Amino acid sequence: MYLNDQLIFEDLDLYREKLGLEKDTFQNSFIKKGNNTLKLVAKGRNENSPQANEPGFDYLKINPQ
After folding, report:
1. 3-class SS at 19?
2. CA triplet 55, 42, 65: central angle to 5 degrees?
């Protein structure tokens, strides 16, 4: 996962066996004023996922420092 072309997660696995709230955090990345770009790059799949071709996450929360 990249934020404004800066790598923020190298091997993030979004698979969860059960629905629920999971928290993955990162620091030392900056949100700039105006438009920002978040890019997900699929590198493979979790073998436990029955629908590995449907990656995603429910929401992204940004906390100002």
Report:
1. coil
2. 80
Is the overall model pTM greater than 0.70, yes or no? Answer: no
What is the amino acid identity at position 10?
E
Cα–Cα distance list, 18 to 9, 14, 35, 49, 52 (Å): 22, 12, 33, 11, 15
Q: Which two tokens stand for residue 41?
A: 């790059």
Q: Of 57, 63, 46, 65, which Cα lies nearest the Cα of 21?
A: 57
Cα separation values, 36 from 12, 18, 39, 58, 61, Å: 20, 31, 10, 19, 14
d(CA 34, CA 21): 29
What pLDDT band is residue 17 in, cutting at 50, 70 and 90? confident
Total residue count of the chain as it appears in this document:
65
